[in-house]
Write a structure and sequence with these properties.
This protein is mostly helical and 83 residues long. It is 94% helix and 0% strand.
Length: 83
């Protein structure tokens, strides 16, 4: 049962973290290729800053997936010790 819960935790935390990392990679690649993507991202960030939500959005899209990935790695190492 403990192994099953660890596997479930790894899957949940990994499934949460991976799309955010892919989003940032796609945004970086898109901003290098097209200037309109860069300008749209700049406009969106300036609107979020003026409304006071920038810190919340940055934390949600960077810190939370990073912590989630670290938890998934920790759970995976714990799972490996059980085998």
């Amino acid at each position: 049962m403990k192994k099953l819960l660890l596997i479930l935790g790894i899957l949940i935390f990994s499934a949460y973290a991976i799309p955010f990392f892919l989003f940032w990679i796609a945004a970086l690649m898109g901003s290098l290729i097209s200037e309109t993507i860069y300008l749209n991202a700049q406009t969106m960030l300036s609107q979020l800053k003026s409304e006071g939500y920038l810190g919340l959005v940055i934390a949600q899209t960077t810190l939370t997936p990073l912590l989630s990935a670290l938890i998934a790695i920790f759970l995976y190492k714990k799972y490996k010790k059980l085998n």
